[in-house]
Amino acid sequence: MQRFLGFMVISLLLLACGQTTGQQIESAASVAQVAQAEPTDEPTAKPTRTPRPTNTPRPTAKPKPTRTPRPTATATPIPEPVVLSGVGQTVTDPFMPPSPVSIIKLTHTGRRNFIVKAYTGNDESYLVNEIGRYTGSRVLYGDSSSFLEINADGEWTVEIVPIALDQAAANGFSGTGDLVSGLFMPTKEGPIPFQFSHNGDSNFIVQVTCQGGMDYAQNEIGTVDGSAIVKFSEGPCLWDVQADGDWTISPK
Predict the structure, then answer these.
(1) Of 90, 146, 242, 252, which sits with the fewest C-beta atoms within 10 Å of its C-beta?
(2) What pTM, to 2 d.p., does this model score?
């Protein structure tokens, strides 16, 4: 009997403990639900706006390169002529010819010898050897310091100018007395027949001088009316004529 009562007491105690424990669990669950349901006083933070990307400016167009102006052609100045004058026998002061090939124009008003020699560097050349009045032109080669030795009995003048171009001279040349043509390119290289005439009484000398060489086409005295071969080499060329009358040179 005592054992039964003891068992009952223990059972009641266990039941009582079990109820208490279940109530506590339910109470705790209720509290948790209430705590979860009730909102807190703290405000919920709003999400921050993501800033829109700013427009990237388009690259500016590269300026087109400006055209560089072409340099304008500068004309080569024509050298100044050398002008000399005097009376009687004279050796001139040194001068520089205006170009490697120059034309020297001479006059003399005396009645006796008129002899002109040119000295260019170590070279010596006869330009004129006449008697009395004279008007004519000769060729002067060289571009180094030069001077003239003049034998005369009257007034004389000298003008030295650079040689010019004269392509028309390839088809003939004419004049009076001593005369030099401008530079020209021959119509072809090699022998070409030409017609010559001269009505003077003294020397008639026709020399053609080219870059590739020189040829004497005429070396006569007095009147001439005939044809002869002119041998042209590599140009440019020039005619160098010595005469005392009117003359003509023309292709045959």
Answers:
(1) 252
(2) 0.69
